[in-house]
Amino acid sequence: MARPDFRERLATGKPLVLDGAMGSELQRRGVWVSHGAIEGKLGAWSATAMRDAPDVVRAVHEDYFRAGADIATTNSFWTNSVKLGLVGLGDRAADYTRLAGKIAVDARDRLRPQAYVAGGMAPPHGGLAKVDPVDLPREFSMQAQALRESGVDLLLIEYIGHVDDIVMAIDAVAPTGLPVMVGIREITAAGLMQHGETFDQLMTALGPRTVDAILLMCSSPAAITAGLPRLRRAFAGPIGGYPNIGYDRSTDHFDARHPWHSLDTTTYTPAQLAADASRWLAMGARIVGGCCATTPDHIAALRQAMP
Ligand SMILES: [Zn+2]
Hints:
This protein has twelve helices and eight strands. 41% of the residues lie in helices and 12% in strands. The protein has one domain: TIM Barrel, CATH 3.20.20.330. An eight-stranded parallel β-sheet has the order 1-8-7-6-5-4-3-2. The longest helix has 19 residues, at 93-111. The protein is globular. It has helices at 6-11, 23-28, 49-52, 54-67, 81-85, 93-111, 135-150, 163-173, 199-206, 221-234, 270-282, 296-305; strands at 16-17, 71-73, 116-121, 154-160, 180-185, 213-217, 239-242, 285-288. By secondary structure, the protein is of the alpha/beta class. Strand 4, helix 8 and strand 5 (180-185) form a beta-alpha-beta unit. It starts with 5 loop residues before the first helix and ends with a helix. Residues 218, 244, 291-292 line the site of zinc ion.
């Protein structure tokens, strides 16, 4: 086998490079990601790329592997029946989720067999929902099963922000038996969870459940720097971060008819990500990568900066 079990690899303590953005990168390459968007709310976003542009999804994975990513996240962020239902594709959710897994696994097997594929999924109502005990467990259960069937090595529950949602998500994907990383969204400037919840509260709520790694994501680099020490004190397992570097869907720039204006104007360079990631490693992070607006160039720079 080309690679050790993901948990064994984590246990070595050696840093892992997570890949960069998928949705904004698809957009940068000309894939239309505004299907189903209404009035400042994202629609199906990158989920429709599984129908419209699977070859571009494949090419993005390939470029991240060439850049040296140790973990690729599948393009299944929102291939759930809620988001795909916005564009009449709700009944294809499991198919597109499986396809997202298969494309990433195939790219890995050809280009970087020592790397891992994380099956990604995000809450079906995005950042707008209150705690969601109905759609979230159902969709995560479906996606986790489909991703397991496609051969992923682990699961990445990401862009999740409520303690109660995280607990439900862990329970929903547990039957797969796969390792699970959690990526917590929109960390505040004070280093807290989006709604002011603390990582200590999260750990108390999780109780005896197994979480293989906790990452801070889709937050500014400064927020990740503020949050990591707090996360380190609350959680003894592997931690990490992957920032959003200038792709703010909550700004007035958002217009569903046009690409996000901020995408081409982010000034956060690959060298800056490499420098911040080095700082995060010194704070105990072991998994670093990029979220919205990061590119293969960012991941290549990050790779170079790894010890
Ligand atoms: Zn993001």
